[in-house]
Amino acid sequence: MSHSLPPLSLYVHVPWCVRKCPYCDFNSHGVGRSGALPEEDYLSALIEDLQADLPLARGRELVSVFIGGGTPSLMSAGFYGRLLDAVAERLPMAADIEITLEANPGTLERGRFAGYRRVGINRLSLGVQSFQDAQLEALGRIHSGDDARAAVNEAREAGFDNLNLDLMHGLPDQTPELALADLELALALSPEHLSWYQLTLEPNTEFHSRPPVLPEEEVLWDIQDLGHARLEAAGLSRYEISAYARPGRRSRHNLNYWRFGDYLGIGAGAHAKLSVEAEGGLHIERRWKTRQPEAYLRRQRDPRGFLAGRAPIPAEELPLEFAMNVLRLTDGVPLSSWSAHTGRPAQALLGRLDEARKKGLLMEEAERVQASPQGLLFLNELLALIDPSG
To answer: Which of 219, 234, 256 delimits the end of a domain?
Structure first.
């Protein structure tokens, strides 16, 4: 492998869920509780999709696989066993590869976690969002707080020792006391990783067209301050804006995203970011696959394949793209990596860094670009200062 190429991950998208949540802007399509899924056809399409993308891997081994959705836990363990076998036949995998599956507590059949663990999945990410039944109902979730606790217990019984809980805050009518109560319930389950992020009203969602009443800004600040302090006190260190982990349990897959690594994307609507050969050397390209599941499945018989679009990242946009990712990390990046990833001399950045430090948005680190706690809160303002095209 060339030293100029970053690490490589694989993202697999499973687009179906029981029903679409009103806040969700991901490529997900409701099928109902009894909806039959085209497992065999989708597996065949995913393998064909991966096969077509193999030249883009350029001989690199996979450091991580992340299976997201939708609700990937609607698919059987056998589906993932065959998929992961097909991946391993086509791409080398790191000896300590991290393989994550997203799961929702309301879609689990008893014993399914044990099957996932047997086929090689070694990390689970549970979409809990809240342990309060009233909040879950307001979010349109199909599980209860008891379902979430039962799912964690079953995951532990199945042998999973690397567990992430997804938890939201800033929920409709949520108080700091309710938000902290959710965190306490999560901490009582001893997760290795916690993703704790604020509910936002995204375009093209039901909540955007019919917004619920959300907490006032002062309440949101209180929730964040109290929550960050509580998680750190519990031994979950913040390493990204909304990610907390115990020592050695940071998400390798997400770290590869945030460090501007490469990733293949297979499945309906999956995105990829890749370093590809072009005139004058390597350039970075984003790719995306056909979005609608039915159209994606039809692409197996289409000479155009599964690719819906591709676009190189223009050289002048690379510094901002790089900064948008790495400045989410609490420890930032070495200043030297700026040139390596953007093709721009670090010297050209120094004046902008000084201005950001004067505003208190960057740490006083000579050889690192690292957001201060204030900079993490006001990341857009920090990015606007650093962006060389601004």
So the answer is: 256
Asked if 268 and 296 count as a contact pair (C-beta separation under 8 A), the reply is yes
Angle of helix 39-57 relative to helix 77-90, nearest 10 degrees, comes to 20
Reference 47, options 2, 25, 72, 79; nearest CA is 79
Buried b (16+ CB within 10 A) or exposed e, 177-198: ebbbebbebbbebebbbbbbee
Q: How far apart are CA 295 and CA 308, in angstroms?
A: 11
Closest among 172, 163, 173, 197 to 183, alpha carbons compared: 197
Per-residue pLDDT tens digits for 82-132:
999 999 999 999 999 999 999 999 766 667 999 999 999 999 999 999 999
Report which of 76, 14, 79, 90 is spatially closest to residue 48, judged by C-alpha positions. Answer: 90
d(CA 102, CA 12): 11
Instruction: Compute the distance between CA of residue 305 and CA of residue 307 in angstroms, rounded to an integer.
Output: 6
d(CA 166, CA 125): 7
Residue 336's CB is within 10 A of a number of other CB atoms, namely 10
Same domain, 236 and 123: yes
Is the domain of 250 the same as that of 354? Answer: no
Q: Kindly state the tokens that stand for 358.
A: 């004067």
Say whether pTM exceeds 0.90.
Answer: yes
Residues in the chain: 390
Which tokens belong to 334?
């070495």
How far apart (Å, rounded) are the C-alpha atoms in residues 332 and 371?
7
pLDDT recorded at residue 1: 39
Q: Are 179 and 225 in contact (CB under 8 A)?
A: no
Backbone angles phi, psi at 285, to 5 degrees: -130, 140
Clarify whether residues 91 and 230 are in a common domain. Answer: yes
Residue 67, strand partner residues: 12, 101
E runs forming strands in the chain = 8-14, 16-17, 29-30, 62-69, 93-103, 123-129, 163-169, 193-198, 237-240, 243-245, 262-266, 271-278, 281-289, 307-312, 333-334, 368-369
